[in-house]
Amino acid sequence: MALTRVTKHIVHGSLLVQFKYVENEGNWDLTGSQNVYTKVNNKNIVLTPQYADSILENSASATIRDISGSQNITDTYSIGLHVNGSLEYEESTIGGFTPYGNNYIHTGGRNDRIAPTRRHGHITNMSHSLGLSHAFTPGTTNAQDCDVRVKNSTTRNIRVRDFFFIAKEISIGLPSSGAQ
Fold this sequence. Notes:
This protein starts with 14 loop residues before the first strand and ends in a 9-residue tail after the last strand. Helices cover 0% and strands 53% of the residues. The chain has one domain (15-171): Jelly Rolls (Sandwich), CATH 2.60.120.760. It is built from no helices and 10 strands. Strand 4 (77-83) and strand 5 (86-94) form a beta hairpin. 19% of the residues are buried. Strands 1-10-3-8 form a 4-stranded antiparallel β-sheet, with no helix packed on it. The protein has strands spanning 15-33, 38-47, 55-66, 77-83, 86-94, 106-107, 120-121, 127-136, 144-152, 156-171. By secondary structure, the protein is an all-beta fold.
């Protein structure tokens, strides 16, 4: 059996070790989801850390739009980072037009405010920006399957547009042991 030379790698300081990204140009529609996370167009990133103590940093961005065409003053959307099928990070209550608990309703168009001539303007087909940035230490060199999922608070059709997702492995730096 031939002898194999073992080389020790020492990394000083922070270092971008590797990165991968996926994107979905254009539209992806989610129809009829209610409080169930759905992976954005089946896009995912499998990243195998080279160092067990590395940091995995994930960032995603997109826009989301209510395409149901009906009035929407309370519905909200959520975006979640899932790692190996489990929810790692979530941003919720995106959208919804109830700032500080008050519904957004505008009455206007006529000078008299007496029913039945009163007009109400409601919000339909609004777009929102989605974004997340999250870092975690997996503590292993096993493959990490990362994906971004969205959900809405009611059964409503939504459109995700121009989705971009990137995952990076960043070394936190190994101290020098003195041995070469």
